[in-house]
Structures are given as structure tokens and as C-alpha cells.
Amino acid sequence: MKYNIIMFNMSEFREWKSGIVNRNYHILHNLLEKDQINKIFAVDFLPYTKKRSLRIYLQSILKSTGGKRIYMDLTSKLSLHSDKLCVYSTIDSIFSEKKVYKKINKIIKKKKIFNDKYPILIWSYFPIFSGYFDFFKNFSVVKTINIFDTVDNWMEHPNFTDYKERLKNNYEIISKESDYIFTVSKDLLNLFPKAKNKEWIPNGVDLSHFEKKADKTIIHAGHPIIGYVGTIEKRLDFELIKYLSLKNPEKSIVLIGPVWKNVKVDELKSQNNVHFLGRKSYSELPYYINEFNVSIIPHKVDKYTKSMNPLKLYEYLACGKPIVTTQVAGVEKFQELIYAAKTKEEFNEKINQALKENNKQLETKRKESVQNENWKNRVNQMLEKINNITNSN
Questions:
Q1: Which of 170, 218, 348, 366 could be cross-linked to 130 through a Cys-Cys bond (beta carbons 3.0 to 4.6 Å apart)?
Q2: Is the pTM of this model over 0.85?
Q3: What domains are defined for the chain?
Q4: pLDDT tens per residue across span 24-43
């Protein structure tokens, strides 16, 4: 069975091109490699604030993001990036959600984007909007199948506090209307009590990508290096990181990732052994992680982190690095290979234990533990579930 896909992304394509990647990126690009997929019409992050609309208009619509432009009007642009991928950017959602879907319908038909003989997967990562369920019911003469891939519980995300009720309502609609729901963590299955079909499919990793090592030292800090990769945001336990820096003046704590606005890190920056290296592209990450002596996941344990499945967990393991983490969701799967701590004192003890115990044999075991946890297998799992419901109807 072949499929066409309309995918509502939680990111902008230009962000992916600049090296900022996530689960959405990996799933989309692995789908493109499948013969089973005819074509993907990828819809950039739909803005719901004026500020985001302006950014998308200036950076994704007016500026070139690659590909061949095949449609443009005052508020939208469609570019062809390969024979299988079209990328659509629009700010119509700030005016009318229905207008977005009507224009997508119009463009797909006018430009003959899809072969009408294949079923269409309406595949979303973006719970801010849910009106597509009603609109696309009569979108085509061929079957449409609604897929939702759940990346975290956005109701608990600090950036979406003002949209909690809207998200709650949309999650209920998604639960009722989706043909299949995938979740990044086991806990997220509880978010969809009315779902017809749901499956926990964790994050994955591109193993070959994380085998890369730099030809020379790129982290200029004293060893041993305690390293973290990820956005510097409110999910991080800054008190824990400060405690680690004070208890380990002879070690370097390296934090790689952008610092979100309204996150206060001045006190940490004042510590001589804490180094903020800023955002690094996905292509650069292996070089940095492979210089860590110990990798850490110092996340707060709360409702938000309970819904997560840290990508960095798989990436650290793919590099064979010792991992010390708080007891967030997803780490229990690798409990024999990582060091999980309940308190800041225990976290510090585990770092020293990890440094002392690390050896080539353990590094090999860590790498082997994620051999089957790759994105290709994740997409195969998803397509198998989708094929089952397609064939049963």
C-alpha cells in the first residue's frame, strides 16, 4: 500500500536546515526514504501569535529556504524540495484556521501534487490546531487516515501555559477522531482515553551519525568534562547544576544548547567551571558528545518531564558515554547501563561512580543497547500499524 501524506509539523523547515532537529524531523526524513510513501506535503509550524507570524513571513516566506518555488501569494509559499517532498509555509492561521485547509486543498488540486489513487495520511505533530479532522473528511475521493504523533504533553509545557484549555480541548478531539495515535512516552497514552488505536513508540537515534569524532579537541575546558546537550530551559534543575559545580571545582560542566528567554543563568555563568557553549547544529553534536567524560540529564521530575522521552538519552548511548540522570520518563528502559539519582547528593555520587567505573567494555555495551533503537525501525513500526488499520477497513 502506498500513501500520500499531509504533515502538520511542530517546526519550520528552515530550522531543520540550520541544524535544529527533533523527532518530527527524523520521522519525516525516514518516511521519505520509504518506497511506500509517494509524496509528502509538509506544512510548516502554523503560527498562532502575531510575533511568530511575522518571523515565519520574513524568514520562511519572503526568504528562500531552498527548493523550487511552485506557488506563492501574499501569505503563503510552496516549494518543491525533491520529487517526494513539498514544503508549505503560511501565516493564514493567524487569520483563519479554515483558510489554511481550504488553500492546501486548492493548491494540491491545482498543482496536481498527489496521485489520487493513493490513500492520504493526515499526519500531525501540532496540537494547537485540530480543525483539519472535519475539513479533510471529504478532502479526496480516496481514503484519508488521521495520524497524530505525540511529542510531550504541551499542556504542561511552560511556553503554552496560556493555551492550556485550548490544548485540553484539542487533545480530546485528537483522542476521538484519530485513526492512530503514537506517543513518545508510555505515560502519554493516558492523555488519549478515547483513542481507537494508540501505541507507545519511543524516540530513536541515527547510529552512524553519532560515530563521528573530531580530528582535534573542540571543547577547551579542563577534564573530566561533565556534559549536557539540549535547550537550556525551565525543565533543567539549575539548583542541581549549581550544586554539582560547587562540589566539583576540578571538573568542567559543559552545557551545549540555546538559552531560552526568561531563563536566568547569570549565577551559573559566574561559576568558573561552568561553560555555556551555545547552540550547536545536529551535524556538530557527535563531535561534542564524544568529548564528554560523563553525560548528564539534570531535568526536574514533574508532569512535563514525565511525558518526555529524551532524545539525548539515545544519542549519549550511541556515543557510548556514561549517563547520570534524574529519574525522568524513559530512562528505566536502560536502567542497567545508566546511573539514575533521586537527590542532588546522589547525583553527584553517581557522577564520580560513573567516572571511576567507565571502561571500553561498558562503552561497547551502551552502543549495543541502542542498535535496534534507530529511526528506521521506529518508522517501520508506525507504518506496520497504519497498514493494519488500512487493510482492516
A1: 170
A2: yes
A3: 3-204+374-392 (3.40.50.11010), 209-369 (3.40.50.2000)
A4: 999 999 999 999 999 999 99
